[in-house]
Amino acid sequence: MPELPEVETIARSLRPALAGRKVTAVRLLWPRTLETPSPNEFQERITGQTICSTRRRGKFLILNLTTDYLLIHLRMSGDLRIEPDDGENALHDRLIVSLDDGRRLTFNDPRKFGRAWLVEDQACVVGGLGPEPLDETFTPADLYRSLQTHRRQLKPLLLDQTFLAGLGNIYVDESLYRARLHPLTPSQSVSPEQAEALWHGIRASLQEGIRRNGASIDWVYRGGDFQNYFRAYQRTGQPCPQCGTPIERIIVGQRGTHYCPTCQRISI
What we know:
By secondary structure, the protein is an alpha+beta fold. The longest helix is centred in the C-terminal third of the chain and has 20 residues, at about 190-210. The chain has a five-stranded mixed β-sheet with strand order 2-9-5-4-3. The two termini are about 30 Å apart. The protein has helices at about 5-20, 40-45, 125, 140-150, 155-160, 170-180, 190-210, and strands spanning about 25-30, 35, 50-55, 60-65, 70-75, 80-85, 95-100, 105-110, 115-120, 250, 255-260. Helix 1 (about 5-20) crosses helix 7, helix 4 packs across helix 7 (about 190-210) and helix 6 packs across helix 7 (about 190-210).
């Protein structure tokens, strides 16, 4: 599933193509792609609106329109393309937004899990998300206080989008490795010093992921190469870059989890 760096990469690639473009028509090829409103209302409302900006919130792509917001979540296999509007539809195309420059924004999703929303208030979709981990206002002290208010293992807590927005399996494993914290560590046992290390680990992992245009695994390839620089994720049996101990894989909250048993000792 695309995580924060992958969605940020997509937002940056789409931004210059979509800025100031007017929606001239839409085609909904898989009705369940649209969460709200109804297909007829969607077509009536979005047609004629101008795309004012393109940005990301957590794992959501958000298009600010003249009066509404179009939000898209790629889920497991979603992808977005800018292409000529007179071409043939590709297999698995689900939603097509035609633009006034003769091009279109196409949402392609083989597994059909991706979703789109057209809403007046974006908060009704993303209002429950936790803080943005790369936001300048998000501090190590904020992370420490939040960790202390929960009694959960670090791995599932960091995956919880209401706790922190944008992290998924890849970047949680990479962040915990950088912070030298075991994924099963209870959140309330984390010290201020460990919370600061985790804060730095999260930001460093995400920033490197963005710098490398994300990781091109388990979803539609977009040219990112962060997968070539993983320190823990999907490196089962390979030597830890720090100490040489083989990386181990366990299941935490039904998710494959990778860590170094020497560098990331559990403390309860």
